[in-house]
Write a structure and sequence with these properties.
By secondary structure, the chain is mostly helical. The protein is built from 4 helices and no strands. α2 (19-43) packs across α3 (49-67) and α2 packs across α4.
């Protein structure tokens, strides 16, 4: 969470690659919030994925609010939706991996 906060505090992360930059940044959003969700889910002993999702998405919302105060950054509600997509994909990936390994899928 500290890493996400530090990256959000950067004034401008634009690489100048145009559309590719936008796509890469949105994919990074999905990846980082998917990873955060998995870490919270694991911390909660794989028992309550909705709680892990709520914590993760609440942090995503506060991150977007934080960006309103950073020069060159804009907090956008659609970014929270992109983060939520990352959470959903991470959930599905963990369940698929656990099923593949013959372990019972977490809740």
């Amino acid at each position: 969470m500290a890493l996400i906060f530090a990256l959000s505090a950067q004034p401008d992360l634009n690489s100048g690659l145009g559309t590719a930059d936008l796509i890469l940044r949105k994919l990074a959003h999905m990846l980082e919030y998917g990873a955060l969700f998995v870490l919270w889910w694991r911390a909660l002993r794989w028992k309550v994925p909705p709680a892990a999702a709520v914590i993760t998405l609440a942090y995503a919302a506060t991150d977007e609010y934080h960006q309103h105060f950073v020069s060159g950054r804009v907090g956008a509600p659609h970014d929270v939706a992109i983060d939520a997509a990352g959470v959903c994909l991470a959930y599905l990936a963990v369940r698929a991996l656990r099923n593949r390994r013959g372990r019972p899928a977490p809740a």
